[in-house]
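Late entry, written up from scratch paper. The run itself happened at the end of the previous shift, but nothing got recorded in the book at the time, so transcribing now.
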Amino acid sequence: MSGVRSSVRVFAPASVANLGVGFDALGAALDQAGDVVVARRSRRRGVRVVSIEGDDGRLPLDPERNTASVAARGVLEMARAGGSAVAGIDLEIVKGLPLESGMGSSAASAAAGGFATAALLGIRDRRKILLPVLEGENAADGSWHGDNVFASLLGGLVLVPSSRPEWPLRPISLPFPDRLRLVLVHPDFSLKTSESRKVLPREILLGTHVRQAAALALLVAALAAGDLKGAGRAIDSDSVVDPARAPLIPAYHAVTRAMRRAGAFGCAIAGAGPSLLALSEEGPKAAAIAKAAVAAWKAEGIRATAAVHRIDPLGAREIPLP
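Output as recorded:
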């Protein structure tokens, strides 16, 4: 640690998890959207959330329940154990992501809060704060899954072999082709992660497990080889998670059918939903997929928005203070 400063401002990108067959094990950072956190040194001991913008008053100021402050507290405690004399941290949070959307909103706040505190305290290695940001994400729904938050923190496409805090946290950055595009379509309704996890099967047959594991391996290998059609087939091979969650998302089948007709290589629920994901490539096809999905939901009486994303290679990073 070195160079303690008085304030820093950090952006952490949105993310999408699972990609069909990679439940709780695969996450990708998305360009364009994300959350911003300003961290300031304070003489008051502990971490405070002094303001939140962009959440319509839905997120807690309680530092024990806010994902950004829980992550920040873990980083501060780690720094104190290393000899830091900083008493406290004040956080200002600006939400740039819709809540309960499947775009890693809680994870972006956790990544931004943890990284901002680390930057403020002179901790340069972001992999040293994996556990604090994971604990921040856990504050959102009580489950341990690092796919979103590690992608938001580290950037890129990330494989997460373990998300249990008592096990080694060693996310692996995976290769992907530059021409890859992810189409995210967000309907005008929310779905709680806790509700989406409740419908998942507690047991699966051995044969189902083998097919799912093989499909995840195929997805990783296809993306590394630049085979987007093969990656799409792998995403579409999910026989465990998306089939269980699809009934929670109105018009799921109509929208995914429309995206495939428009040229999507594969489709999946984005994280816990209700956003949907389509795999595409650079060029006009991606925009056509987005347009088709919005139209399909509109035909069902549901408003939706869509965006075409690259994978964000940077993850959490400092941005200038206003």
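Residues 175 and 224 are 5 Å apart (CA to CA).
(Scratch paper discarded after transcription.)
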